[in-house]
Amino acid sequence: MSLLVQVFKWDQGCRLHHRVGILLWRGVKKQAVYPTKLAEVGRLVEARDDRYETGQLFLHRIFGYRGVILFPWTARVYDRDLHNPGKISATTTASASSTQQHRTKEDSLRVKANTSAPPTAATAQSNDAPTSAAFQTNAAEGTTNVGTASQVDPKEVKGKVQTFYQVLIDTRDCPYIRAQTEAVTFLGNQDSNRSLYAIPGLDYVAHEDIMPYSSSEKSPLQHELFDKFLTYVPEADPPFVAQDTLKAWQEKNHPWLDMSDVHKETTENVRITVIPFYMGCRETPASSVYWWRYCIRLENLGEMSVQLRERHWRIFSLSGTLETVRGRGVVGQEPILSPRLPAFQYSSHVSLQAPSGHMWGTFRLEREDGYSFDCKIPPFSLESKPDDLGPPTPATPSAHDKKRGDSD
Fold first, then answer.
1. End-to-end C-alpha distance for the chain, whole angstroms
2. What region holds the ApaG domain (predicted)?
3. Region at 285 (left for phi over 0; alpha for psi -120 to 50; beta for the rest)
4. Which of 253, 312, 313, 358 has minimal Cβ neighbours within 10 Å of its Cβ?
5. Are 248 and 268 in contact (CB under 8 A)?
6. Could you give the CA distance from residue 359 to residue 345 in angstroms, rounded to a whole number?
7. pLDDT of 17
8. Which helix (H) or strand (E) holds 158?
9. What was the pLDDT predicted at 15?
């Protein structure tokens, strides 16, 4: 039986519902006040084990938004849970099992969209401790050594190569997803060392979070870069092909967009995923300042709601400095992670007066029964790259870019 997916007009809020291992959005609306008009926009197709192509439309398995794949990245994932199997609860195992079951479910899913107002997403009707000397990454072997200055842990965390994708997000879904839609930032060309610019509606998505679907529309996604980067070719599969502008933009901005390492760790059924990015170096007469951004996802794998209360960061620089940062929440929020809204994703920035360093820390979380605990942020390295590649190029004229300051 086909699985119908409907997008309801946004009114009061949204909830994530689990149906056949799929996390989809459901809009809440008042009865008989705002009638909903539905229109078919596509049909889910069978998930693939190999890479998806540029132009593939998809739904995000966790955040529920509609998007399109621009190009893939190959990343090495360091999952500390794999080396501490006792930490993984039955809930984590069930979550992985649920994802796998989804791949074997119906590959035909009809996607509905609100034609009179921006959709929230879909509903299914079923059918941030070690020191520099102790944190080393061997890129060739794909391992990370984790320990302290006085006692190095001999255990190695081996990296597993996985595929991630650079994607565009449908702007109609941006207001309703629990993830920053301006996560891709770069250094501007102004003189100030703190000038950061963001390109709205770009994200990085893991292969397992892609739920592919097809559409007969020539412009099925609303984003100002869609028609600049992709062109409709009905005989192609998928029928949206990369234009030369996308290829040129990817090549020019490769150093700032490229992702190489992903770090994961689970504490008390809360999984933290960190992806660091090198942004570039700002030269001044007095010093050189190196910038990185980092994207963090918190995901509740348990059955009880938890709320993020505090953050505690330790930032070590190759220059020998060790900085401690404490504060309430993240990016001005104290998000609640519930079984129905299990994930929250944000990005922030860090600068060092050295070409490398590393970060680690904890999030203080409070469970709904009053129990508080520190959730580990897996340690990750901050590595710079050669600076002879020139400045980043905006995807569109400067009016498209949005200036932003430090967020955390």
1. 47
2. 264-389
3. alpha
4. 312
5. no
6. 18
7. 36
8. strand 156-169
9. 38
Hey, what are 380's tokens?
């990750």
Spatial neighbors of 41 by CB under 8 A, at least 6 apart, are: 111, 112, 113, 215, 217, 220
What is the predicted pLDDT for the residue at 336? 96
Predicted pLDDT at 46 = 93
pLDDT of residue 355: 93
Low-confidence ranges of the chain (pLDDT < 50): 1-32, 89-141, 143-155, 190, 192-193, 397-407
Q: Give dist(CA 267, CA 367) in Å, integer.
A: 13
Count of beta carbons in the 10 Å neighbourhood of residue 178: 21
Check the CA dihedral 391-186-292-208 and report its sign.
negative
Q: For residues 4 and 313, give the distance between their C-alpha atoms in angstroms, rounded to a whole number.
A: 44
DSSP-assigned states of every residue in 226-247: HHHHEEE-TTSSSSEEE-HHHH
Beta bridge partners of 307: 336, 366
The beta strands (E) that lie in 7-56 are given as 13-19, 22-28, 38-44
Residue found by looking up tokens 């501007």 in the block: 188
What is the distance between the alpha carbons of residues 123 and 22, in angstroms, rounded to a whole number?
10
Cβ neighbours for 115, distance < 8 A, ≥ 6 positions apart? 37, 38, 39
Residue 130 CA neighbour count, 13 Å, CB half: 21
How much of the chain is helix, strand and coil, in % rounded to 5? 10, 45, 40
Q: Give the span between the Cα atoms of 101 and 81, in whole angstroms.
A: 21
Amino acid identity for residue 88 in this structure = I
Exposed (0-12), middle (13-18) or buried (19+): which is 42, by Cβ within 10 Å? buried
Q: Is the dihedral of CA 53, 54, 56, 60 positive or negative?
A: positive
Q: How far apart are CA 82 and CA 139, in angstroms?
A: 19
Strand 22-28 and strand 13-19: the pairing is antiparallel
The rounded distance, in Å, linking the Cα atoms of 84 and 124 is 35
pLDDT at 163: 95
Q: Which residues partner with 275 through β-bridges?
A: 295
CB 316 within 8 A of CB 359: yes
CA pair distance 342, 98, nearest whole angstrom: 15
Show me where the domains of the chain are located. 3-127+129-404
- DSSP secondary structure code for residue 191 in this structure: S
Token readout for 30 is: 């008042």
Reference 375, options 273, 281, 288, 279; nearest CA is 273
pLDDT for the residue 395: 62
